[in-house]
Amino acid sequence: MDIDPVAKKVLEGIVRHAVPFGSSIVSIVEAIVNSVEAELRHSPPFEGQTKKESIDSAIDQKIKDKFG
Amino acid sequence: MGHLIFLLGIALFATGCGPSATSRAIVALNTAADVAESANKVLIAEYENEQNAAIEMAASREDAEREIREIRERYKPAWIAQKTFRLVWIDAATAVQIVQLSGEAPDVGKILRLLERLAEAQRSFIESVKKLE
Predict the structure, then answer these.
(1) Which of A66, B1, B28, B112 is deepest in the core (most CB within 10 A)?
(2) 8 Å CB contact of A63 and B65
(3) What predicted TM-score, i.e. pTM, was given to this entire model?
(4) Which residues of A touch B93 (CB under 8 A)?
(5) Where are the domains of chain A?
(6) Where are the domains positioned within chain B?
(7) Residue B132 contacts by C-beta under 8 Å, 6 or more apart in sequence?
(8) Which residues in chain A have their CB less than 8 angstroms from residue B31's CB?
(9) Does A11 or B119 have the greater pLDDT score?
(10) ipTM of the complex
């Protein structure tokens, strides 16, 4: 089963911090935020993901391949 | 889910609850990036699939090129929103890193404004992707 990575971290955090049943919303939220590593990710978003430009050039090539 | 955590992170940052201001800002930044990257994967897949399908169905080069032009035009706002999000994220992350490196107390008002801009950029990006689905 695919689990959202953020949701997984949150659930792990709630279990790790042993948030008791009936806790106030503030303490639950604090546990959630505390559960996520407070280390800034090393690269900006979309780094290493497929770029629009590379899709465009692959598509342009496919048109050439199909229609000459 | 990730978007909710991002907003909770900003709320905690604004109210001063929980861990240090810098840690709260980092949580908000990381979560915003994770959520945007999930949306970006959908954007990339849809963009590529639609164009491949258009080439498959086209009867001539002219048809294919016209279809591809239309698809690319329709996706333009999403790519602009994606670039904007990335730039705003880099802006906010740089401000937080400067605080971390200097060891000085963060300018909470400034970081909060940057996180609010990030929330807005994230919302625009996700909405522009949803419109295409």
Answers:
(1) B28
(2) yes
(3) 0.77
(4) 40, 44
(5) 1-38
(6) 2-132
(7) B43, B46, B74, B75, B78
(8) 6, 36
(9) B119
(10) 0.80
